[in-house]
Amino acid sequence: MADKSEHILFLTGKLAEKQLRQILQAMQPEFEYTVHQLGLTVAALMTADMIRRRLKETYGADRILVPGRCRGDLESLSASLGIPVERGPNELKDLPAFFGHEDVVPDLSRYDIRIFAELTEAPHMSIEEILAQADWHRRHGADVIDVGCLPNTQFPHLEETFQALKAEGHLTSIDSLNPDDLLRGGRAGADYMLSLHRETLWIAEEVPSVPIVIPQPPADLDSLSEAVEIFDGMGQSYILDPILEPIHYGFTASIVRYHKVRDHFPEAEMLMGVGNLTELTHADTVGINALLLGICSELHINNILATQVSGHCSRAIPEADLARRIVFYARENNMLPKHVHPGLMCLHDPKPFPYQLTEIQELAGMIRDPSYRIQISKEGMHIFNRDGMHSATDPFELFPKLGVETDGGHAFYLGVELARAQIAWQLGKRYNQDEMLDWGCATDPSEEESVDPHAYKPAGTTLKKKNPS
Fold this sequence. Notes:
- The protein has 15 helices and 15 strands.
- By secondary structure, the chain is α/β, with parallel strands linked by helices.
- The chain folds into 3 domains: 7-98; 114-341, Dihydropteroate synthase-like (TIM Barrel, Alpha-Beta Barrel), CATH 3.20.20.20; 357-427, no CATH class.
- The strands form 3 sheets. Strands 5-6-7-8-9-10-11-12 form an 8-stranded parallel barrel, surrounded by 4 helices.
- Strand 1, helix 1 (14-27) and strand 2 form a beta-alpha-beta unit.
- Helix 2 (48-54) packs parallel to helix 3 (74-81), helix 5 (127-139) crosses helix 6 (158-167) and helix 11 crosses helix 12.
- The longest helix has 20 residues, at 408-427.
- The radius of gyration is 28 Å and the shape is elongated.
């Protein structure tokens, strides 16, 4: 961001000067600026030493902005020039966003959907394993650790499990249809219990846990109404779960049920077990979670039960965490859940190809050194240096043309970069040479990525609307 009264000196090269001026003019920034072309052809080749040698005047600027790929010690350069020298974005077309002209950085610290993260194999896990998984889930967005019981399976360390989880500060729930398991979990300190139905409502009188109630059978919403009448008469808190069914096993009808229950009980707490769709559908879960959390946001369903059992569901918790923040922000700001945060766009980018083929060809024609540059366009991958440009959609077609057969290190580097470029081109992702591809919330962020201005708090944020506890 820039101060209104600030004067910024933009340093660039011959090839990029015209485009830089056009972008700044279109931005109509409130700050003053000067564009200075340093006398080199390609701005990306700029170094701190080159700036120190060539820059004779700073034009009264308060700070200097150099290309993002500028190499060298900018801290030392700042001290030499007496004003701050900072890197801008790698690509000129990202300059408006760099100054906040395209996107307002959203506040994603708020949400109103609580995530129950189920440990489905808890009876077969040691206490240490349970605590390790619970810690991971909490760090990635879970609010409640749901201890799952298995049919006809002994769980001798159930009480010890809840004692250990509570000692670590976790909110907990016991998950079973067996009354004995529910009673044991409730007496051991579970904050919630899943799931009571018409025949087991009596358990809520025996333990202090908040009951989560399901219809029995699933299509019988009258049984939920009976539970509501009983619990309201008792002054008992509760959460209603109309049960989300898998596709072709009543999925659409179950979505309708959620809508009916919300209409019937506009103030009731509700829960959706999203794992019945993510686990039982072989499709990337990030989109499924986004859609289901959108439904929850519209219907004000403030609890979900998520699982990470199947291999393709290994990031279901962090996906749901980011999705709940995005839909909350969109709803509160009366907008679509679009252009809020890129973390749910794991496979594709909205603007994957910042440069057209003709622009890349023009840049390639200006290169006068042997270092290879790699860029992608809609047409494929392009690698170029002073000896010319080669284009392909398969990296193996390029190798014989690069002259690096005897240079193992260089060949390895170009192989890695061209593999990244090919993946980015195939999927429609942004590729920047010497940078990892951005997989959004599908991977854990590195320390560098965690300080990104678009980053969100992954866990531990207080709910806007407090659920019963």
